[in-house]
Specification:
5-stranded antiparallel β-sheet; Methylamine Dehydrogenase, Chain H; disordered N terminus; 4% helix; mainly beta; Neuraminidase
């Protein structure tokens, strides 16, 4: 059965919510996970990819699986791994093991440690060019090839200098980063955004905060044409204020004053998605740290008023554009009250919908009230959506075809469960899995 949801076009007010912090346990032991999983030998040959492949954490180890029906291959056996991340070519995987960054080939070979790293968005990222990797280690910013060669330290991380976040340009020619200079125990004396060439040369300042002790620039990413940097504007060095939302800003690399794109949103990169043609930015906007309250989906441009695609009775998160750029897959749930407990989200039943960018109605893809669905990602050919599914305190991976058929489970359990990292409904799914849709175009390599 098809379900339809009206799409309104009016802008909604945004509000601020409370400041409590909570997290919820959802771990399964490595023994529980591996007892039911079948470890296969490393693949000696890989058949043609139909829908790409996933790298995921089960029992604390890195596994891979070709979609839709490939065997699962266990690549590590230490039980302490997280944050798997495919290189654009699909040849390498980066992952975090006990607070250190590692890389290995996609068959599990040639694994080696690169250095300490903190998990999270903007800490480790592959360039689309030549499987080059950038990461932040103890405040330093390091560029390296996948095998650890050609290492360049762009920011030392010592002497009061430190980097906090990074983002590769869409063409892989530049790396943007957020950095500051401060004396021990003092507010930052200098804070802002820089960029450096892919080989580590030519570092240049893009913009400095006019009052670094009061206003901070938190890097969000690039415009698709690499002409502007996007950032969230933080205030008063306050993590609590940031958790309730910040303005999304943009600044041209050619100079000029910053301009605001969205008045307030949560500072998650997964709440931003550029259309394939690079003209439209889908934004989950609204203040208050709960994902189920006061969250609207906007379509914005770098210059111009955003347009709203939402119903005030619902909350939309995790937008993902289809490859042809006419529709978005989103996770939608009935909007709950501010102050509702975070754990209720996992049983309240968020579901996947297809939302036309310019159409009057949305189509629901999933509807089982036993599950909460999140983090949709399209296959390269646009035929299929891979997504995360929550069943109680259990996290799984599923797929469904865009024509509403073919719903099936592809990974029975992600363990340790990323639900333990739930922050007011926001789950960093990158800690548990990564979906590789296929090699990038030859021009990007």
């Amino acid at each position: 059965m098809r379900f339809r949801l009206a799409i309104l076009s009016l802008l909604a007010p945004v509000v601020l919510a409370g400041c409590a912090v909570e997290a919820h346990a959802g771990f399964e032991s490595a023994a529980d996970a591996t007892a039911t999983a079948v470890a296969q030998a490393h693949p000696t040959s890989v058949p043609p990819l139909a829908l790409g492949k996933v790298a995921y954490i089960q029992g604390g180890d890195v596994w891979t699986k070709q979609l839709p029906d490939g065997k699962a291959y266990r690549l590590t056996q230490d039980g302490g791994d997280s944050w798997p991340l495919w290189s654009p070519s699909g040849t390498w995987l980066a992952f975090i093991r006990d607070q250190a960054l590692w890389t290995m080939r996609a068959d599990g070979g040639d694994a080696h440690s690169l250095g300490p790293v903190a998990p999270g968005e903007g800490q480790v990222e592959w360039s689309v060019r030549g499987d080059r990797l950038a990461y932040i280690s103890d405040g330093g910013l390091i560029l390296t090839d996948a095998d650890g060669s050609r290492e360049v330290r762009v920011v030392s991380g010592g002497g009061g200098e430190g980097a906090a976040a990074l983002a590769w340009s869409p063409d892989g020619a530049w790396l943007a980063y957020e950095a500051e200079v401060r004396a021990p125990g003092k507010p930052p004396m200098e804070q802002g955004l820089w960029r450096v060439r892919a080989d580590g040369t030519g570092s240049e300042r893009i913009s400095l905060s006019p009052a670094p002790a009061q206003i901070q620039y938190h890097l969000a990413g690039w415009s698709p044409d690499a002409s502007e940097l996007l950032y969230w504007q933080g205030m008063q060095l306050s993590a609590s204020l940031a958790a309730d939302g910040e303005p999304l800003m943009a600044i041209s690399l050619s100079g000029g004053s910053p301009h605001r794109i969205v008045p307030i949103m949560l500072p998650y990169r997964s709440f931003l998605a550029w259309s394939p043609d690079g003209r439209t930015l889908a934004v989950v906007a609204g203040g208050g740290r709960q994902t189920w309250a006061n969250k609207v989906l906007l379509l914005a441009t770098l210059h111009g008023a955003p347009r709203r695609l939402t119903n005030p009775r619902t909350a939309m998160v995790a937008p993902a554009w289809s490859p042809e750029g006419h529709t978005l897959a989103v996770a939608i749930e009935i909007a709950g009250p501010v102050g509702q407990a975070s754990t209720l989200r996992a049983v309240s039943g968020s579901h996947l919908w297809i939302v036309p960018a310019n159409g009057p109605a949305a189509t629901r893809l999933t509807s089982d009230p036993s599950f909460a669905d999140d983090h949709p990602q399209w296959s390269r050919d646009g035929s299929t959506i891979v997504f995360a599914r929550i069943h109680g305190q259990r996290a799984e991976l599923w797929l469904v075809h865009a024509d509403e058929t073919g719903l099936r489970q592809i990974v029975a359990a992600l363990t340790p469960s990323p639900l333990a990292l739930d922050y007011y409904g926001h789950i960093p799914w990158g800690a548990a899995y990564d979906y590789w849709t296929g090699s990038p175009p030859a021009s990007s390599r």
